[in-house]
């Protein structure tokens, strides 16, 4: 590994071959460990900080050398449990199953028949479930550690994650606040190692519900106006939302600019 000038050294990457069912095309130029494929899964990485890359292109040994190593917990779990993705492991499936209770759709399990493929639909039904499961886990842990949704810093990251999850929830028929009800499930999964989520689940749930309630009001009003703007621009043969309209949505109605961008890209 080498970032230019500065520390550098050897790098070892450990891959797991998941078998020919995940890829067996000998003519695929990406079918190798480290390539863009589903067969070879990197589960471990070892970075040796051994040399300093000098401005003149030479390398000299570092006075203090070390090894930085890391394993992907969810990736290792997917290998041990023999499932195709991190989200199909027991770290995420209980959350996904809970989401299904509020949704009009069902998550496609491994080896289930994909009716979308049979009927030629390109709809990706699993992505919303994955996004929501990932984001609620992140937000629950962060709030348990003392972070709160806000308009700046780390709080803004939480706010954006929650809002993004709410947006994806609409794609699977969830129109009301529900994410706060997922917090106990998140806590149960990790209680042996991170009991804080379970211990503080009432507070965490309350914070998330308040955030969901506020955003649903903003989202419903903003989407109605944004839809009118998009239709107007389409009718005029235009493909760009005027900056004045995007600013008005944000400044007057509190509709986030990033959501305007995402909806515009999909329109």
TrEMBL record:
<dbReference type="InterPro" id="IPR018164">
    <property type="entry name" value="Ala-tRNA-synth_IIc_N"/>
</dbReference>
<keyword id="KW-0820">tRNA-binding</keyword>
<keyword id="KW-0547">Nucleotide-binding</keyword>
<dbReference type="Pfam" id="PF01411">
    <property type="entry name" value="tRNA-synt_2c"/>
</dbReference>
<comment type="similarity">
    <text>Belongs to the class-II aminoacyl-tRNA synthetase family.</text>
</comment>
<keyword id="KW-0436">Ligase</keyword>
<keyword id="KW-0648">Protein biosynthesis</keyword>
<dbReference type="InterPro" id="IPR045864">
    <property type="entry name" value="aa-tRNA-synth_II/BPL/LPL"/>
</dbReference>
<keyword id="KW-0067">ATP-binding</keyword>
<dbReference type="GO" id="GO:0000049">
    <property type="term" value="F:tRNA binding"/>
</dbReference>
<dbReference type="GO" id="GO:0005524">
    <property type="term" value="F:ATP binding"/>
</dbReference>
<keyword id="KW-0694">RNA-binding</keyword>
<dbReference type="GO" id="GO:0004813">
    <property type="term" value="F:alanine-tRNA ligase activity"/>
</dbReference>
<dbReference type="GO" id="GO:0006419">
    <property type="term" value="P:alanyl-tRNA aminoacylation"/>
</dbReference>
<keyword id="KW-0030">Aminoacyl-tRNA synthetase</keyword>
<dbReference type="GO" id="GO:0005829">
    <property type="term" value="C:cytosol"/>
</dbReference>
<protein>
    <recommendedName>
        <fullName>alanine--tRNA ligase</fullName>
        <ecNumber>6.1.1.7</ecNumber>
    </recommendedName>
</protein>
<dbReference type="InterPro" id="IPR018165">
    <property type="entry name" value="Ala-tRNA-synth_IIc_core"/>
</dbReference>
<dbReference type="GO" id="GO:0002161">
    <property type="term" value="F:aminoacyl-tRNA deacylase activity"/>
</dbReference>
<dbReference type="InterPro" id="IPR018162">
    <property type="entry name" value="Ala-tRNA-ligase_IIc_anticod-bd"/>
</dbReference>
<feature type="domain" description="Alanyl-transfer RNA synthetases family profile">
    <location>
        <begin position="1"/>
        <end position="267"/>
    </location>
</feature>
<dbReference type="InterPro" id="IPR002318">
    <property type="entry name" value="Ala-tRNA-lgiase_IIc"/>
</dbReference>
<feature type="region of interest" description="Disordered">
    <location>
        <begin position="1"/>
        <end position="28"/>
    </location>
</feature>
<dbReference type="InterPro" id="IPR050058">
    <property type="entry name" value="Ala-tRNA_ligase"/>
</dbReference>
């Amino acid at each position: 590994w080498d970032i230019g000038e500065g520390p550098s050294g050897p790098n070892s990457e450990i891959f797991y071959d998941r078998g020919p069912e995940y890829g067996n095309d000998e003519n695929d130029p990406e079918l190798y460990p480290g390539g863009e494929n589903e067969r070879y899964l990197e589960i471990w990485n070892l970075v040796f900080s051994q040399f300093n890359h000098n401005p003149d292109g030479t390398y000299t040994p570092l006075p203090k050398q070390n090894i930085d190593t890391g394993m992907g917990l969810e990736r290792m779990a997917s290998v041990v449990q023999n499932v195709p993705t991190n989200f199909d492991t027991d770290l995420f499936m209980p959350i996904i199953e809970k989401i299904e209770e509020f949704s009009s759709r069902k998550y496609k399990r491994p080896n289930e028949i994909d009716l979308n493929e049979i009927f030629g639909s390109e709809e990706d039904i699993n992505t919303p479930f994955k996004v929501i499961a990932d984001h609620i886990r992140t937000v629950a842990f962060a709030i348990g550690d003392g972070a709160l949704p806000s308009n700046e810093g780390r709080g803004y990251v939480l706010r954006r994650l929650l809002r993004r999850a709410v947006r994806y929830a609409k794609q699977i028929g969830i129109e009301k606040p529900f994410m706060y009800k997922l917090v106990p499930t998140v806590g149960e999964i990790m209680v042996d190692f991170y009991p804080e989520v379970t211990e503080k689940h009432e507070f965490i749930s309350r914070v998330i519900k308040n955030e969901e309630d506020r955003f649903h009001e903003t989202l419903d009003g903003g989407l109605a106006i944004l839809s009118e703007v998009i239709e107007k621009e389409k009718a005029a043969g235009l493909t760009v939302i005027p900056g004045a309209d995007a600013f008005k949505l944000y400044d007057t109605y509190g509709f986030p600019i990033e959501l305007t961008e995402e909806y515009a890209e999909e329109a």
